[in-house]
């Protein structure tokens, strides 16, 4: 593809900002040749990107699906990191790419890369046992059918969006990639938000309760990935994560011991997920273990280690302490 036109949504965020800076510093000839644009909601962000040679498009937000679709029609590749839970916005972006293809000679295949998460594959080990101890592979397993099945039992906005992206891509003849990231850690490299949501939220909870918390037995297992490491997956149980936080909090003199505390779903929902026990269970207690076989085949390599993960817990304590 000659000089692809790339749009990134969510570039002022943690992951999107890291993706943009990765592109800006890339030695890949196609990316170096590409024109980079961002969809933003704030004038000061637009000004900052423009000063770096990135073209900003100022919109009210993803909710304005007409404007989003119109904007998308001007690009060859869209990296959508702004919101994994808005099916209408994702659809508008995919159909916008199709509109653009229809206006051109159609020789350029359009690509839509959608950042999503693994909570939409998670089980409900507390409210609906037995737990699912299974490592999902994006190559071996039919994740689409599995997610359809889960979705029929209980709709979940992130999963609804994943499925919509795949369906819209097929209808619009746009190549879609749903990147189901696990728990992301480490410092981002973008211009604005450089911290993740997940671990800092648990650190704030640990400081408030005096010790890190986990739900129920805390035995549900998730993978971790460093924000600048596209395919480095490491596992933790929720209890092990709480133990890692306790150690880091003690080292930083913010917590007084290495004790951790099991709490119930209702208490966790009140403290961490705005009252939703469903979200607390799948995002903070479930099993969701995945292997990115397709990503590895595409040449993505792990660079970060368990030591980086431990270090990021210490860094996150500093970050949360300095921002509270
Ligand atoms: N962090 C993780 O551990 C993780 C793991 C898996 C999946 N994900 C998913 O990845 C996505 C991004 O996560 P993140 O941690 O990078 O979030 P973040 O730091 O909060 O960034 C969100 C970005 O999206 C933009 N945005 C949000 N709502 C928007 C809207 N309605 N219209 C236009 N722009 C909007 C924000 O712009 P403003 O600057 O204007 O607010 C910001 O640039 C989320 O969907 C999340 O579910 C995250």
UniProtKB/TrEMBL annotation:
Source species, domain of life:
Eukaryota
Q: Which Pfam families match?
A: Epimerase
Gene Ontology CC annotation, any one = cytoplasm
Domain NAD-dependent epimerase/dehydratase, by residue range, is: 6-236
**InterPro entries for the chain:** Epimerase_deHydtase, NAD(P)-bd_dom_sf, NAD(P)-dependent_oxidoreduct
Tell me the leader sequence span: none
Protein name, please? Answer: NAD-dependent epimerase/dehydratase domain-containing protein
Organism of origin: Xylaria grammica
